[in-house]
Amino acid sequence: MSVNLRGRNFLTLKDFTPGEIGYMLNLSLDLKRKKRAGIRGDLLDRKSIVLIFEKASTRTRCAFETAAFDEGGSVTFLTNSQMGKKESIEDTAKVLGRFYDGIEFRGFKQETVKTLAEYAGVPVWNGLTDQYHPTQILADFLTVMEHCDKPLNRVKFVYAGDARNNMGNSLMIGAVKMGMHFVALAPKELFPSKELVAEMKEIAKETGAVIELSESLDAVKGADVIYTDVWVSMGEEAMFEQRIKQLKPYQVNM
C-alpha cells in the first residue's frame, strides 16, 4: 500500500488510517536502527522547525530536537512568544509558517494547535494538549512492537489510571485504530467520555479492536502491556488529594 503523508498535520490519531499509523511505526523502527548503526539521515536537510512550548517538558523537547538534528534539520525552541498575548494565534501561525517548514506545539488547549494548523500553511504536530498526546502513542506502540512477540492486533493493552485524560484518550484511539484489545482500568467516574467510546466502537467494527471499561483489577489478567500515567491530570492540580484517593488502588508498582 502506497502511503503519502507529505504536508499532513498530526493533531490526533483520529486523522490517520491503521495503514498510515503502521507506516509511521515502521518508519520509526527503520530510523532508530539507522541511528544505532551510526547512519546519519538527511530527510530534513535544509529544513527548519519551531517548537512552541507553553508547557514544560524534558522528553518531548529532547525527542523532537534530536529527531530533527539526526535528519539534518535545525530547530528553534520557543517558550516566550507573544502568541495569544500581543499577537493572535492566527497571526503567529501565519508568521511562523513563513519562517519554518514545520511547527510543533505543546500546550494547554487542543483548540490552539487546531488554529495553528488552520493558518500556518505548513505541517503542525501536536506534542501534547489537554485532549490528546498522539506523538507519545507512536513512541509507546514502537516500544510494544520491540518488546512484545506478537503483532499489535493481538496485543491486550491495559491502561490503569485516569482514563479520561489526554493519555487515556490517545491510547484508546491508537489501540482501536490498530485493532488491539484495549482496557481502560479506572474508577467509573474516570472512564473515558461516552462520546469518545461510542466513536471508537464504530471504528472497532472495522479494525476488530475490543474496548473494555473496568473498575476491577481482574481486567489485567492476560495483559501484554500494563500502562499508567500521572496521578493528577493537567489543569486539575487542585484535586490532588481526591485523585490520590481515587487512583491508589490502580497504581502500578514494581
Question: Short description, anyone?
Answer:
The chain is of the alpha/beta class and 254 residues long.
Structure, described:
The protein has 254 residues and is of the alpha/beta class. It has eight helices and eight strands. The protein folds into two domains: 13-128, Rossmann fold (3-Layer(aba) Sandwich), CATH 3.40.50.1370; 148-249, Aspartate/ornithine carbamoyltransferase (Rossmann fold). It has helices at 18-36, 59-70, 89-99, 110-120, 134-147, 166-177, 194-207, 240-247, and strands spanning 48-53, 74-78, 102-106, 124-128, 156-160, 181-185, 210-214, 225-228. The strands form two sheets. Strands 2-1-3-4 form a four-stranded parallel sheet, with helices on both faces. Strands 7-6-5-8 form a four-stranded parallel sheet, with helices on one face. β1 (48-53), α2 and β2 form a beta-alpha-beta unit. α1 (18-36) crosses α5. It is globular and about 50 Å long. The model has no long low-confidence stretch (mean pLDDT 96).
Topology summary:
Elements: H1 18-36, E1 48-53, H2 59-70, E2 74-78, H3 89-99, E3 102-106, H4 110-120, E4 124-128, H5 134-147, E5 156-160, H6 166-177, E6 181-185, H7 194-207, E7 210-214, E8 225-228, H8 240-247
Parallel strand pairs: 1-2, 1-3, 3-4, 5-6, 5-8, 6-7
Supply database-style keywords:
254 residues; alpha/beta; Rossmann fold; four-stranded parallel beta sheet; globular
